[in-house]
Structures are given as structure tokens and as C-alpha cells.
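WARN no homologs supplied; continuing
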Amino acid sequence: MLPEEVIIKPVVTEKSNDAMQLSKYTFRVNKKATKVDIKRAVEKLFEVKVLKVNTINVDGKKKRVGRNVGKTSDWKKAVVTIDSNPSEKSYLDKNGKAKKLGKKYKDSIDEFAGA
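OK structure emitted
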């Protein structure tokens, strides 16, 4: 799946805004997406380091218009925890020299709240 197909839209509620202070972001995702797919999509789209992904299958609500009874569609929600203090990783190569990984990560998702 492409990252644009995995992440549908952000979920903006009071609870999700409070969780943003703890570096947790909530998204509406494709029902067929796995946690690994969601992690890869968020890391690729927003250039952040994902620490943890929690998913929830949300049941649709029953709605009634007059005498007609229907149901809204079921959907999947993902709460993604990102690394708020990304640091450069280093390792030793075969010769014993220290090398640093050159990948830079952001510490928050700026596009989340429409900022």
C-alpha cells in the first residue's frame, strides 16, 4: 500500500489535542492497514521517528432519519507515538571508527493541526 492510501485524515478532538502534548497523534487509517504499514507511512509522509502504534477498530453508530434506520460505516483509528527528542545514532564500523547515521527526524508533526 502507498503511504497516501494508508493515512486517510487526522482525527482532531479535544482528547487527541491533549495527547499531542505527549507526542501522540491520532489518524483515521485504511481498514486493511497493519501497524507496520501505518508506521512506515507516518515516517515517510511526516519525516518523524515512530516509537509505537496502537490501533482501534471503531464501530459505526446507528442513525435514524424518520422511520428509516441506518448505520454509519466502520473505520479504523491509529494512535501513533513519535520520538519527541530524536538524537543521532552512531555505530562502529569494521575498522573501529565511529560512524553516524545521516537521517534527520523532526520532533513533531507540523501539518497535523493545519498549522
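The beta strands are 7-10, 24-29, 50-58, 62-65, 68-71, 75-82, 90-92, 98-100.
OK
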